[in-house]
Give the backbone structure.
Amino acid sequence: MPPRHTASANGPAGAAMVLGVIGLSTSVFFIGGLFGVIGLILGIVALMTAKRTGTGGGKARTGVVTSALAIVVSVLVAVFFVRYADKTQECYRPDSFQQYTHCVHQQFTGN
């Protein structure tokens, strides 16, 4: 009898891990949050499958952690961009780049 190949017994675990890593590496571009949400869902499904089958638990945990981090980083980046846009909204129509940078510096330092 040939040996059984159990690595594919928990496909969602591998997918969650890959999506989590991709999500974390692209989270500064907002798209990582979407990868993170999908990876988190697959990771939770994979954890339940791992309890039942005993395979893929490590990959599932890695997928859940990296996906959650991707979501957190994406949210923090979005908050930063919204704050930056709010603080610098009156600087959007400068006559030159030098005026723009001066205006942004004034908005953040109060000088």
The mean pLDDT is 86. Helices lie at 11-25, 31-53, 57-87, 97-109. The first helix runs from residue 11 to 25.
